[in-house]
Write a structure and sequence with these properties.
It is a single chain. By secondary structure, this protein is α/β, with parallel strands linked by helices. It folds into 4 domains: 73 residues, Signal recognition particle alu RNA binding heterodimer, srp9/1, CATH 3.30.720; 180 residues, 3-Layer(aba) Sandwich (Rossmann fold), CATH 3.40.50.300; 70 residues, Orthogonal Bundle (Helicase, Ruva Protein, domain 3); 190 residues, Methane Monooxygenase Hydroxylase, Chain G, domain 1, CATH 1.20.58. The chain is built from 23 helices and 15 strands. Strands 5-7-8-9-6-10 form a 6-stranded mixed β-sheet, with helices on both faces. Strands 3-2-1-4 form a 4-stranded mixed β-sheet, covered by helices on one side. A 3-stranded antiparallel β-sheet has the order 12-11-15. Helix 1 packs antiparallel against helix 5 and helix 18 crosses helix 22. The longest helix has 33 residues. It is elongated. 31% of the residues are buried. About 2% of the residues have low confidence. The structure holds adenosine-5'-diphosphate, magnesium ion and zinc ion (ZN). The site of magnesium ion has 4 residues, from helix 9.
């Protein structure tokens, strides 16, 4: 902005100079009609050269016999004849001159006074105006904040329909009703049915909320207005409310239409929780949304869709009947849905004939739709990098790991000793996972570094699970200890490579005690009240709602869990020293073991992993 600002000042000064040049030029020109003094005039009258004098205020316009003209000035207060007499004009000579008095009009009079004072004021005003205009375009947004920047997305270039959304059966059914209403409102109104007003889409990030909203727009074929709630909130108080008003007005004008407010939790948080006091910007915006939702007429055909991944923090007022009273839950996809989603995202990708997407789906529990779309894309990129014509199964498997852990880092240089430590560390994890029947089966062990991990043991659950049991957690803790234990056992030393495992194990153990009530001696009680900081949206404060004595007990219980896990791990490593050596050596040699190779290596030893 400052650059433009200076440019502008220079421009203003320049035009000022130009103005004054033009003025002085004009004035000079007008003076060309020769100005003479009163004595000269008197003299010329006496000589009989003057034929007429027009008096206008204090200006005298003089016409000569030879048709030339001149001007002169007299004092304003005295009359012309008086003045001329004083200058010695003979009455006889004066009689030959036709004297006319031009009445000075009011306009001329005032102009005579005002113009000289007004012009500088006007010029200064002009400069200010230019500066202001500049500031306005410079900080455009600052002055343009009342508008909602609402996007009218008809998605004409890429319309999305329900068939492009895999799984989510219940959600689609619920939304089909909305589509139906937008298409035939009469059917509903005739039966006196209340029209759905607001529909809240709830689901983890990447589960397809935005996608589904777009599909509703595509199916019902009405204008679709899309705004992210975070766009409501600006640095100026009051902007959010005015943008909200604007957004709803636009949607109403285009009715029947859909207004989609994405990430509504950005403004829809419970009121009164803000750190900015009871009257902050977010609250005003939320209030305005409530007002707008209530302000719809019964037959206004505008449906408000909103999406959030945090329904728990929404203000209850938003969820009241008549507002966002319909809630559509979008779950993480299950095995079949994952396969469907993979199919949708492989539509334009050439897959090699033998590729089985079901196998990919099996290896990706917990993946969201967005993760799966990303996976297919990574698979295609890997295939392209290897100059293949189509995508192989292996590319997709590799893409899974890339999505989970980050890219492989083959180039990372590690010493032979470090490599050996990593090999034993991962073998430790793998053997313990294979020995415990509650653990998830191992799919892959590798010492190739990926993301932040030096090496890793990939375990995947056999089936979808929503609930987890204490014995599963105990096994998991033991597997986490596996790397540490193996290092200590083999090298009689421990490395920093185990630090992340230990951190995760400690956190898990703490959760077992304080959140899940799984400690025997403390019993089924939860400890600590985790509060959220409103502006960061993350857990940062944990209210300690227990005594110091209990705190000590909690720490003791956590230690007990960890030590128990450590003992299990030590026992397995000690009794399977040979298996550990075999796997570590093979890893050093081959770097990566797939499940099959791994299980084959275990066969001679007395370890029988569960199959999957
Ligand atoms: P969010 O729930 O965070 O709004 P999106 O709707 O933006 O998630 O989903 C991100 C991407 O993930 C979509 O563009 C789509 O490619 C993919 N995706 C998510 N869920 C599905 C699904 N059920 N079917 C097909 N693709 C999906
Ligand atoms: Mg989204
Ligand atoms: Zn480890």
């Amino acid at each position: 902005m400052s650059q433009n600002f200076y440019k502008n000042i220079i421009f203003a000064i320049f035009s000022l100079v130009a103005f004054s040049l033009i003025f002085s030029f004009l004035i000079e020109k007008s003076q060309k009609s020769q100005e003479i003094s009163i004595n000269q005039l008197a003299e010329k009258i006496n000589q009989g050269e003057v034929t007429e004098i027009k008096v206008s205020g204090e200006v005298l316009k003089i016409g000569f016999k030879d048709k030339t003209q001149a001007t002169s000035k007299k004092e304003a207060e005295t009359s012309i004849t008086e003045t001329l007499k004083n200058f010695g004009v003979e009455p006889a000579a004066l009689q030959k001159v036709s004297l006319s008095i031009e009445e000075q009009s009011g306009w001329q009079f005032w102009a005579g006074i005002l113009i000289p004072t007004l012009i500088p004021v006007l010029i200064i005003g002009f400069i200010f105006w230019m500066m202001f205009r500049q500031a306005r375009t410079g900080v455009n947004q600052a002055f343009n904040f009342g508008r909602s920047n609402i996007r009218l997305s008809t998605f004409s270039k890429e319309k999305i329909f329900f068939k492009d959304v895999a799984g989510l059966k219940e959600a689609k059914e619920e939304l089909r009703e909305v589509v139906d209403f937008l298409k035939n409102p009469k059917k509903f109104l005739d039966l006196g049915a209340k029209i759905p007003r607001g529909v809240l889409l709830v689901g983890l990030p990447g589960t397809g909320k935005t996608l589904l909203a777009r599909a509703v727009a595509g199916e019902s074929n009405v204008p679709f207005f899309h705004i992210s709630a975070s766009e409501f909130v600006e640095m100026f108080v009051g902007v959010g409310a005015s943008r909200t008003r604007d957004a709803f007005m636009t949607a109403k004008k285009a009715s029947p239409s859909i207004l989609f407010i994405d990430e509504i939790d950005a403004v829809g948080r419970q009121r009164g929780a803000g750190l900015g006091g009871g009257n902050d910007e977010r609250e005003q915006t939320l209030n305005q949304i409530l007002v707008e939702l209530d302000g719809f007429d019964r037959d206004t055909r505008v449906i408000v869709l909103a999406a959030t991944n945090r329904p728990d923090i929404l203000d209850p007022a938003l969820l009241r009947p008549g507002r966002f009273d319909r809630r559509v839950i979008l779950d993480l996809p299950d095995l079949n849905d994952r396969e469907e989603i993979l199919k949708i995202h492989s539509r334009e990708k050439p897959l090699e004939k033998s590729v089985d997407l079901k196998k990919v789906a099996q290896r990706t529990p917990g993946f969201s739709g967005a993760d799966l779309a990303n996976l297919m894309n990574e698979g295609a990129i890997l295939a392209a990098r290897k100059n293949q014509k189509d995508i192989l199964q292996g590319d997709l498997f590799e893409a899974i790991e890339k999505v989970i852990l980050g890219p492989e880092r083959r180039s990372r240089v590690i010493s032979a000793k470090e490599k050996e430590i990593t090999a034993y560390h991962e073998s430790g994890h793998a053997i313990i996972a294979a020995s415990l029947k509650n653990s998830d089966p191992v799919h892959k062990v590798t010492i190739i570094s990926r993301g932040l991990a030096g090496g890793y043991t990939l375990k995947l659950p056999i089936e979808e699970r929503r609930l987890r049991t204490k014995s599963q957690f105990l096994s998991e803790l033991a597997v986490m200890m596996g790397g540490f234990v193996a290092e200590k056992f083999v090298f009689n030393d421990v490395s920093t490579g185990a630090s992340n495992d230990l951190k995760e194990a400690s956190e898990l153990a703490r959760r077992l005690v304080t959140k899940y009530g799984m400690s025997d001696s403390l019993g089924p009680i939860t400890f600590g009240n985790t509060e959220e900081m409103v502006f960061l949206g993350r857990e940062i404060t944990t209210e300690k709602n227990y005594s110091e004595k209990t705190a000590t007990q909690i720490d003791e219980e956590i230690t007990k869990f960890i030590h128990h896990a450590l003992e299990i791990a030590q026992k397995i490593v000690r009794t399977n020293k040979k298996a550990l050596d075999t796997i570590a050596k093979t890893l050093l040699d081959k770097e990566t073991l797939e499940q099959e190779d791994f299980y084959n290596l275990l066969k001679p030893f007395n370890i029988k992993p569960i199959s999957a």
